[in-house]
Amino acid sequence: METIEFRLADWDDLPAVSHLIQQAFAPLAATLPSRPTALDETVASLTGHLASGSQIFLAWQQRQLAACLLVLPPDDGCAEVKRVCTHPELQGLGLGSALLHHAEAQLRQQGVQRIRLATRRRLPGNLAFYQRLGYQEIARQPYAAEVDDERVVLSKQLAA
Questions:
Q1: Which residues lie below 8 Å from residue 5, measured CB to CB, with a gap of 6+?
Q2: For the sheet containing 55-61, what is the strand order?
Q3: Residues in the chain where the model's pLDDT stays below 50
Q4: Which of 33, 95, 100, 123 has a 20 to 30 A CA-CA distance from 131?
């Protein structure tokens, strides 16, 4: 695998982050019973996340933004991870899991004890991905009544 550079996003990265999220999540719109909420992310919403203390972890490969994930500010030692995505042309190369491992290590150093994240029941590949990385299912939550899907909530302990 090519060298991966990990770093936190700054304000200047947000247009590229927004573009990557759109590229990664747009193909799911055709396969899911409702539009992925990740597609609602914009530079403005990402700016709001950073301004409120969220962190956006980035993986760069050959000067290209290859993967990203958003971490909301921890609450009672637990951080919520959202918008985990890899550029469509780079999926399956281990970039997403490498970025998630990097983020976990950084969050552990920041005193975060547990990570929570969610995926959709209709995305079994995503569920299997997180389970391979040690995340355990802790809940299933229904979507709106007219949507045949569930939000699968997973958690991973980082520190005792």
A1: 59, 60, 61
A2: 4-8, 55-61, 64-71, 78-86, 114-120, 150-157, 136-142
A3: none
A4: 33
Q: Output the DSSP codes for 13-72.
A: GHHHHHHHHHHHHGGGGGTSSS--GGGG--HHHHHHHHHTT-EEEEEEETTEEEEEEEEP
- Give the Cα separation of 143 and 121 in Å (integer): 10
In the structure encoding, which two tokens stand for residue 110, read together? 């920041």
- State how far the Cα of 16 lies from the Cα of 66, in Å rounded to an integer: 10
Tell me the pLDDT tens digit for each residue of 111-129: 999 999 999 999 999 999 9
Contact present, 154 and 138 (Cβ < 8 Å)? yes
The H or E element that residue 141 is part of is: strand 136-142
Instruction: Quote the distance between the C-alpha of residue 145 and its chain's center.
Output: 25
